[in-house]
Design goal:
Layout lengths: L39 E2 L14 H11 L10 H14 L12 H11 L3 E6 L3 H10 L3 E8 L17 E13 L4 E5 L11 E5 H9 L3 E8 L1
Antiparallel strand pairs: 1-4, 2-7, 3-4, 3-7, 4-5, 5-6
Length: 222
């Protein structure tokens, strides 16, 4: 079955965009819009590996559940795959004869099926993402993925340049206001990047969020 037209040369890059206009009523920064930007890091106690499976949404949400502010070091790859499979069975695309699913479907999986979170909200644009990361917790991102994001450079950065090769879901768990970047926690094993982690500049994050990007956070973690 065909899914939304988006090149996928890597089977791991199977995040699919799915939007609900009602989401705009639920901003992650409600109540902190006037707080100053600040740097903060939310640790992630596990590093899961999705292998060659197009299950990045499940793994990004599993890392979210595992991370501070309510850390759970018992989250496993099987748990992440279960999130992905439920999300795929219940997303907007009929059947399961395709790879991938959406960040929204993953949010529904961990809230409606697993009951690990109560509610979820969205960051719209760079400023929302920075404040949310600084004060509220990690964000599950759904982003276009470019060829220069396959590996980090010598300074640990990935770059939103080169050829568009698919879509990826990944956890943003840290923000550096001085360095003007966020840190992402990937699901491609500890051998990728800086031990599963990489940096993404504010400029690149702003661009990727403007390209039908998503940024989602739980309201309450259970």
């Amino acid at each position: 079955m065909s899914t939304p037209d988006q090149p996928r040369v890597d089977p791991r890059l199977d995040r699919l965009p799915e939007f609900d206009d009602r989401s705009r009523q639920f901003r992650a920064v409600e109540g902190i819009e006037d707080k100053p930007f600040r740097s903060y890091t939310w640790s992630v106690p596990v590093a899961l590996d999705q292998g060659r499976e197009g299950a990045c949404v499940g793994f990004a949400w599993a890392h979210e559940i595992a991370a501070r502010p309510s850390p759970d070091a018992n989250i496993t790859a099987d748990y992440a795959l279960a999130i992905y499979r439920w999300a795929q069975q219940n997303d907007q695309w009929p059947g399961e004869d395709y790879s991938g699913t959406s960040v929204l479907a993953g949010a529904k999986a961990v809230s409606e099926w697993l009951d690990r979170i109560r509610g979820y909200r969205w960051a719209f644009g760079l400023e929302d993402a920075r404040r949310t990361l600084g004060y509220r917790g990690p964000l599950v991102l759904g982003l276009n993925w470019y060829s220069d994001m396959r590996q980090t450079d010598a300074d640990g950065f990935i770059h939103a340049s080169g050829e568009l090769i698919g879509g990826h879901a990944i956890l943003a768990y840290s923000v550096s206001e001085r360095g003007k970047y966020v840190r992402l926690w990937n699901s491609w094993s500890r051998g990728w990047g800086q031990g599963s982690s990489c940096k993404l500049s504010f400029d690149d994050l702003a661009r990727l969020l403007s390209e039908q990007g998503e940024a989602c956070i739980p309201v309450v973690r259970r």
